[in-house]
Amino acid sequence: MYLRTTKRKNKDGSVVEYLQLAHNVRHPQTGSPVAEIVHNFGRADELNRDDLVRLCRSIARVCGLEVLDPLAAPGGSSARQEATGLPEDLKLIRTLDLGVPFVTEILWERLGIGPALRKVMTESRCDLEYEKALLAITANRLCEPESKLGVWDRWLSKVFLPSCAGLKLNQMYEAMDVLYRHIAKVEDSVFFHTANLFNLVVDLIFYDTTTAGFSIDEPDEDTEEGPGLRKYGHSKDGTWSPQVVVALAVTREGLPVRSWVFPGNTSDVETIKKVREDLRGWKLGRALFVADSGANSAANREELAKACGKYLLATRMSSVSEIKEDVLTRPGRYRVITENLHAKEVVVGDGERRCRYILCYNPREAERQRKHREQVVKELEEELKSHPDHKATARWAIELMASGRYKRYLAIDKTERVRVDRAAIREIAKYDGKWVLQTNDDTISLEDAAAGYKGLLVIERCFRTLKRTRIQMEPLYHWLPRRIEAHIKLCVFALLIERVAELKCKEPWPQIKQALATLQATEFHTPKFRFFQRNEPSAELLRKLKSLEIPMPKTVLNLQSTTSNA
Asked: Which of the chain's ends, N or C, has fewer CB atoms near its CB within 10 Å?
């Protein structure tokens, strides 16, 4: 294998040189050596030839091969004379993804997941290879999520993860069963390890639930192992289908503390009882149930108060007369929490009827909503001008009134003509950039309560990441309760690794992943050695690894002698 230079003459007489990675093969008919192009680097004037030469020389040195100076090589027509010194018996086998698997394995150990698993497996005399199987499944969720079969059959062959080489398919599933039996100990160990690692002051826990659907539409039957998890229930998407309920507790930074899996027909109030019991021994600060307005009803608030004590619930502003009349109109200055988060406290009523509200305001969002509304109203006015009759019975009018974009700004007058509803516009403008939270916790500060909504957004973002956008927890293909729970727990481990990376880099995971994807490992074979060599890192990749406090992997990886096996 060698660095090959080719020349191309342009119409204007100028000559452009191109650099290529090539190796010689014998022509099947003539038997003479013929250059075969492995990779086109591009124009020589746009590349650093010295860097490419050093790369080839480093490969040659590792293999114990003769290195010729390509710049001092004598002229001639043969590729050998243009070579970097790499001999023809050096073979490039394949290139594998290195970045994400490498970082995942480092954080797997640093966060204590690997050590916790190995400890429980050693104590229960299980095969330690199970821990590597669980690492492979978790790393796959952060790369390109596949089924367990896909991880074993396809994905592992595309990434450089030598610790997971040689895994068998049955070990994937058996490892999940082991995890299920010991998950409480593992979660406990991982949480305290992570808290110590990041010096977390866990004084406030945000808790919410979501649902996860399946690839099949049949519920589970109860078995000797216990009740089935896949039960019919109302999903968070508004559908009625077999599902499980997934509960998640996170810190204010969005780090998962613990997760739970319940049958699909379990109410939020029922889940809280189990959560409080499990977290009692963790000596946490306040466990605050945070939910959106869909969970805010008088009955739910009463049950939540009995089950968990403290809650923080978003509230529908326009549908609650108390908020419209007392909260939004109450005079008083907003306290600036952050640039785009202002808040003030409003207490309504006394005794049992006492309610504590937190009115939040985002000036930037208010301006965005105002501009959007003005644009929509302008479109409506132009549409009405184009139909002078303004008859509500006209087809165009019916379509406007049914439109989600326009209907809230329209009204029908006594003459059955469509018009822009100016009163409705003024009423809607009152809510620009505002939201209201309701809590029964008098000890929580205004700042923490206002940040509680942000905590809710963090949980919702975690759920989106888990379910659809990246980790893809659903649809679930497992049907055994222990496998369902183990799968969800591994997805939460992946979420923990992702959130830690985001907090360290102060960037979203897709950007981090994009930089890590540029790090690859190429496998080379010689008569004496078999090894992998990583490519040179970009400046962006180096910045990401520095933020993660992870050193670059060695240039040469997994060097093995092939002669010792002879």
From this structure: C
What is the pLDDT at residue 566?
42
Q: Which of 1.20.1300, 3.90.350, 3.10.450, 1.10.10 is the CATH number of 198-362+433-510? A: 3.90.350
- Beta bridge mates, 252: none
How far apart CA 144 and CA 100 sit, in angstroms, is: 10
Q: What is the pTM of this model?
A: 0.70
Closest listed residue to residue 87, CA positions, set 562, 534, 561, 524: 524
Q: What pLDDT, on a 0 to 100 scale, did the predictor assign at position 379?
A: 92
For the chain, how far is it from start to end, CA to CA, in angstroms? 24
Mean pLDDT across the chain: 80
Six token digits for residue 325: 């009349």
Distance CA 13, CA 11 (A): 5
Residue whose C-alpha is closest to residue 330's, from 348, 316, 355: 348
What is the rounded CA–CA span in Å between residue 533 and residue 557? 6
Q: How many CB atoms lie within 10 A of CB 29?
A: 6
Q: What's the half-sphere exposure (Cβ side, CA atoms, 13 Å) at 271?
A: 23
DSSP letter for each residue of 416-468: SBEEE-HHHHHHHHTTTTEEEEEE--SSS-HHHHHHHHHHHHHHHHHHHIIII
Q: What pLDDT digit, counting tens, does each position of 419-463 carry?
A: 999 999 998 998 899 888 888 888 888 887 877 666 566 666 666
Q: Calculate the alpha carbon distances from 263 to 166, 217, 259, 304 in Å.
A: 36, 15, 14, 19
Supply the DSSP symbol for 327. Answer: I
Q: How many residues does the chain have?
A: 566
Among all chains, which residue has been given the structure tokens 């950007």? 511
Domain limits, the chain: 2-97+524-539, 99-193, 198-362+433-510, 364-429
- Residue 435 to residue 362: CA distance in whole angstroms: 9
Peptide bond just before 115 cis, omega within 30 deg = no
Instruction: Determine how β-strand 311-315 pairs with β-strand 529-534.
Output: unpaired
Are the C-beta atoms of 123 and 181 separated by less than 8 Å?
A: no
Q: What is the pLDDT of residue 83?
A: 45
Handedness of CA 362, 364, 366, 372 (dihedral sign): negative
Q: What are phi and psi of 411, to 5 degrees?
A: -145, 160
Q: Is 557 helix (H, G, I), strand (E, B) or coil?
A: strand
